[in-house]
Amino acid sequence: MPLQRRLPKRGFRNIFKKRYALVNLSDLAQFAPNSSADFETFEKAGLVKSQGDGVKLLGNGNISHPLFLKVHSVSKAARQKIEAAGGKIELV
Question: Do residues 65 and 88 lie in contact, with contact meaning Cβ atoms separated by under 8 Å?
């Protein structure tokens, strides 16, 4: 019997899964108030290494000043906290 039939089948890999670079709200405190940020800005600041399928903003932490962000995806908690601080989020 061939080797591929003798070995057990293990797991599943979804070829359609989105792989985002993750950025938390606590990481955005280093940006100046009322500034805009996108993937290039995050990369220069050292928050992301590779883009993958885009940048996703997560709601871990707090933010006290408004920012204008261009990201590919955002969590509900992060959107609420950014808009409560007076900032805006644009989905690319």
Answer: no
Distance of CA 68 to the CA centre of its chain: 15
pTM score: 0.79
Helix (H, G, I), strand (E, B) or coil at 8: coil
The arrangement of strands across the sheet holding 73-74 comes to 21-24, 55-58, 73-74
User: What are the tens digits of pLDDT across the range 11-60?
Assistant: 888 999 999 999 999 999 999 999 999 999 999 999 999 888 999 999 99
Q: Report d(CA 5, CA 26) in Å as an integer.
A: 49
Q: Which CATH architecture has domain 23-91?
A: Ribosomal Protein L15; Chain: K; domain 2 (3.100)
